[in-house]
Amino acid sequence: MTTPPTGSLLTAQDLRKTYGHTHALDGAGFAIHPGEVVAIMGPSGSGKSTLLHCLAGILPPDSGSIMYNGREMTSMSDGERSALRRSEFGFVFQFGQLVPELTCVENVALPLRLNGTSRKEAERAALGWMERLEVDDLKGKRPGEVSGGQGQRVAVARALVTGPRVLFADEPTGALDSFNGERVMDLFTDAARSTNAAVVLVTHEARVASYSDREIVVRDGRSRDMERAI
Amino acid sequence: MYTRDVYTLCIVALMSISHTLLGLLESGPRHGYDLKRAFDEKFGHDRPLHYGQVYSTMSRLLKNGLVEVEAIEAGDGPERKRYAITDAGVTDVERWLATPQKPEEYLQSALYTKVVLALLTHRNAGDILDVQRSEHLRSMRILTDRKRNGDLADQLICDHALFHLEADLRWLELTAARLDRLREAVTR
Ligand SMILES: Nc1ncnc2c1ncn2[C@@H]1O[C@H](COP(=O)(O)OP(=O)(O)OP(=O)(O)O)[C@@H](O)[C@H]1O
Ligand SMILES: [Mg+2]
Q: Which of A83, A157, A164, B85 pairs as cysteine with B89 (C-beta 3.0–4.6 A)?
């Protein structure tokens, strides 16, 4: 087992997770620096989403270590882990992450509202991010009234609004055509780089992965860091 | 590596320089120097044509009656000919444009050969595919970066390369998923 490089923000070693007889993770590792975009690639069912969920503190692994900023995540209480998720992490998924009853700007402002920020201030910050993602003109619309690509850019704005240090994205462009997918990736990675956030990007599409700085490949629950493999 | 220099060279090599120069003349007579400039700006990017290529091409077109010399300006240095396209030249451009390019067949793949040889010699074929994916992604990152910072022409040229590299990668993923069956088939 190699030791993670120094200066990493988030590292994992020897993660294992089984579902019945399925070894979803079978000794996977990971490391990311601030400001880095790392793609997690690999065939369907290889354990990419499971790895992302463990790294993000959504899913506890059966064994192994996950260090975030010098703290062992696996020994935190559920409350500590969810506080960490709210304040330090942002999430973008493939579908269905916006609240249909709220307008787009209310959706983007929501994480700040939940943290106790006033409505006025939260929506002002939300609009700033919506401008960055070029969706500010949609502020009064509801998610059902915008296109898939626009909805994903609203979701990216929402993930960024709290100023997270790590963004987790699981197939963020999986439901989009390649043109809109690339537009999302372009704006997403630019915005993340401008805040020095790290991005953990699960994708099986090479064109999407080409927006990353490096990739790791997951196969049968084991990860391979291609940077260090060569 | 698959940088744009290499890629532009491929595109220029694939297309016919003489048809392209002829096509550029259709919008009006030009000097050899103007033709070179127009070509470089639109298609040559960072790999300009040599003057020699322009003049040898023009004299061939002249001989074949596809262009004519409209005027010769005397001056210092070499004489400056203004070329004009002839009716036969216009017909030639039209025929060229209307003829589809022959698709690449892609049936000779060094990667396929490597994978089969690895399987035959009981080496790890999956590793070969992983390392190749990584190398392809490295080139794709350079192209993506260039595309993000480039103009429309850059974007189109890089996209052309990116789609081809992506096709290689899709084949690679498919092969990775079928390695066990391929091993059985080749070692039987
Ligand atoms: N909640 C669950 N219950 C049971 N098995 C699960 C569960 N989640 C994942 N698995 C299994 O664990 C393995 C890894 O799943 P995972 O979702 O991490 O794969 P993936 O690489 O994200 O695949 P895809 O590219 O299809 O999204 C698979 O065999 C899957 O069937
Ligand atoms: Mg998944």
A: B85
CB contact under 8 A, B162 and A207: yes
Residue B13 has pLDDT above 50, yes or no: no
From A49, A95, A218, A224, mutation site for ligand 1 pocket: most ligand atoms within 8 A of C-beta: A49
- Contacts by A115-121, CB closer than 8 A, 24 or more apart: A115/A86, A115/A87, A115/A162
Both structure tokens of B145: 């970066």
Measured in angstroms, the CA of A4 and the nearest CA of chain B are apart by 20
Nearest CA owner, ligand 1 atom 31: A45
Quote ipTM for the complex.
Answer: 0.86
Q: Which atom of ligand 1 is nearest to the CA of A218?
A: 21
Q: Which residues line ligand 1 (CB under 6 A)?
A: A 19, 22, 24, 42, 44-50, 204
Measure in Å the smallest separation between the Cα of A66 and chain B Cα atoms.
Answer: 26
Q: Which residue do the tokens 């074929």 mark?
A: B125
Q: How far apart are CA A125 and CA B117, in angstroms?
A: 58
The DSSP code sequence of B76-91 is: SSS-EEEEEE-HHHHH
On whether the CB atoms of residues A38 and A199 are closer than 8 A, the answer is yes
pLDDT tens across B118-159, in order? 998 888 898 889 889 999 999 999 999 999 999 998 899 999
Integer angstrom CA distances of residue A41 from A162, A204, A225, B67, B144? 27, 5, 10, 55, 18
Tokens of A41: 């690639």
- What 8-state DSSP symbol labels residue A137? G
Q: How far is the CA of A51 from the centre of ligand 1 (A)?
A: 10
Strand A37-41 relative to strand A214-219: parallel, antiparallel, unpaired? Answer: parallel
Sheet containing A222-225: order of strands: A89-92, A166-170, A198-202, A37-41, A214-219, A222-225
Q: What is the pTM for the complete model shown?
A: 0.83
> What is the layout of strands, in order, in the sheet containing B80-85?
B30-31, B80-85, B67-73
Rounded-to-integer distance, Cα B25 and Cα B54, Å? 13
The two tokens of residue B144 are 């993506």
* 8-state DSSP, A64: E
Task: Provide the terminal-to-terminal Cα distance of chain A, rounded to the nearest Å.
Answer: 17
The answer to whether the CB atoms of B133 and A41 lie below 8 A apart is yes
